[in-house]
Design brief:
By secondary structure, the protein is α/β, with parallel strands linked by helices. Helix content is 40%, strand content 16%. The protein contains eleven helices and 13 strands.
Length: 308
């Protein structure tokens, strides 16, 4: 069995990734706070932002692969705490990448489509980033620190949705939860993106590791759509009322940090490397609905540590 070290194992990607991997592999999940209990994988509580914590974790876990999912990912919180965002999103990835290089451990670093300003769309890996927010700037700094410290690492720019520990971390579950409760929601008609279902992303990342890829890849859906259309497709898939979704402009959203209007990414490089396209929206939303019907939300909630 391969030993995977997954950082940020209580987050949206980290938890789904850890549960998916633990079916066939050994997983050590690193979390900052003791918010998980009863998981089918080992959990280590550590604050990776502290000096020396990353080195101690790698020494303790002795992984075959490092999947670095941990991040300060709430965009408006990064605006309020730019120094912490730089430490977590910008500096820490480079430290882990250097450790991975020193011990010859394959590593995947998770970045974001938000490194682009969204003026053009259909971005390729070689296009110059232009981040608009503290979150995006620090995530770009993380990419650069990983690439400098460890050219053999995989850097995956992503945008994903799914279900999370507390039901509050993804746009997909936001729409499901509010529409199911009969609550009206806004959908931005002028923001284009390529969201990928989180378990599809998990499979892609493992496939990238197993094929020994390295360097920068866009790991998103092969199909783009607006956030409004995304909400409408979710409503239709789940049998919810799409009339509760108000089509508005992002300029009407009252968001603190600037958002990029067109974050469509070209996945041609990854398609060529893997020999197949990444999933389209219908495929991802079908799986999203299927796990919902099969009680996956309740399964995730059961792993929340009630004593924390």
């Amino acid at each position: 069995m391969t030993r995977y070290l997954v950082t940020g194992a209580s987050g949206l990607l980290g938890l789904n990734m850890s549960l998916w991997l633990s079916r066939t592999h050994t997983v050590i999940g690193a979390i900052r706070q003791p918010e998980l209990a009863g998981t089918p994988f080992e959990v280590v509580v550590t604050d990776l932002a502290e000096k020396g914590a990353a080195g101690r974790l790698v020494e303790q876990a002795r992984p075959d692969v490092i999947l670095h999912c941990a991040a300060m990912a709430i965009v408006d919180e990064c605006e309020s705490q730019p120094e912490l965002a730089q430490r977590v999103n910008g500096d820490l990835p480079g430290e882990l990448a250097a450790l991975a290089a020193r011990h010859s451990i394959p590593m995947v670093h998770i970045s974001t489509d938000a490194v682009f300003d969204g003026e053009k769309g259909h971005y390729k890996e070689e296009d110059a980033p232009h981040p608009l927010s503290v979150y995006a700037r620090t995530k770009l700094a993380g990419e650069q620190s990983v690439a400098s410290a460890n050219p053999q690492a995989i850097i995956a720019r992503v945008n994903f949705y799914g279900f999370s520990l507390y039901g509050k971390r993804s746009l997909g579950e936001f729409f499901v939860n509010n529409l199911a409760a009969g609550q009206p929601v806004n959908g931005f008609t002028d923001v284009q993106f390529c969201p990928l279902f989180v378990l599809d992303l998990a499979g892609l990342l493992v496939e990238m590791v197993e094929k020994r890829l390295h360097g920068l890849y866009h790991a998103v859906s092969s199909e783009a759509l607006s956030k409004y259309e995304f909400a409408v497709r979710i409503a239709r898939k789940f049998g919810l009322d799409e009339h509760l979704i108000a089509p508005i402009s992002v300029l009407q959203g009252g968001l603190k940090a600037a958002r990029s209007p067109n974050l469509t990414l070209d996945t041609g490089k990854l398609r060529q490397a893997l020999g197949h396209a990444t999933p389209d929206q219908d495929a991802g939303l079908e799986k999203f609905h299927q796990v919902y019907r099969n009680g996956y939300v309740q399964k995730l909630m059961a792993y929340a540590n009630q004593d924390r």
